[in-house]
Amino acid sequence: DAGITQSPRHKVTETGTPVTLRCHQTENHRYMYWYRQDPGHGLRLIHYSYGVKDTDKGEVSDGYSVSRSKTEDFLLTLESATSSQTSVYFCAISKAGGTDTQYFGPGTRLTVL
Amino acid sequence: TQLLEQSPQFLSIQEGENLTVYCNSSSVFSSLQWYRQEPGEGPVLLVTVVTGGEVKKLKRLTFQFGDARKDSSLHITAAQPGDTGLYLCAATDRGSTLGRLYFGRGTQLTVWP
To answer: Scanning every residue of chain A, which has its alpha carbon at the shortest distance from the alpha carbon of B10?
Structure first.
C-alpha cells in the first residue's frame, strides 16, 4: 500500500469555524490532490499540487484553500466551514501526473453542524 | 453537468450471475480508469485503458475501452460476494500532464450469497 495518511479521520465542527485537514505521504510523489465525495456526485477535485508551493484549483474550489510547504504534506483548509462542506475528503498522490496511477488515502469524514 | 455517466447506479445480484457496468461520455479521453471502493476506504485502481478498442482482463473482470475513446464497460463473470463495492470510472483530459481525474457517480454493486 502507498504510504498515505490523513488526519483527522473524523471531525465534527460548527458552522463558521476554521478547519484544516492534513495529508501526509512517505512516497516522495510530486503530485497531490484533494477530492470530496458526496452521494450522487462521485468524487470531485477541490485543489491539486504539482510541486512544493505549486498549487491550482479544481472544479469545486470555492471555500477551500491549500498549502504545500513540503513534498510530504498537503493541507486543505476550510476558512469558515459551512454545512455544505459536510463530506468525505480524500487525498491522492501520483508520481508523474498525467495518466499515472493515483493512490488514495483512507479519507476524512467531516461533519459541519 | 456530469462528464462521465455511469449506469446502473445500483446493482443487486445473486452469486454466480454476470453483470456489466457502463461508463459513457460525449467527450474523448486520453485514458480511462476503473476504481473499486469499499466502505470506509479510498478508491483503489483496478485498471487503466488507453487505446481505443482495448480490452483488459483481471481474473473475472473484463474492461473495454470504446473505439472512439468516449466510453467503457466493466463486465464481471460469475460474481462473488467479495466483488461487492462501489465501482467508479474516471478519466483524464486529453493531453493533461497534471493528472486531473473526472469521476463518474459510481455503481454500487451488492452480490448476495
So the answer is: A40
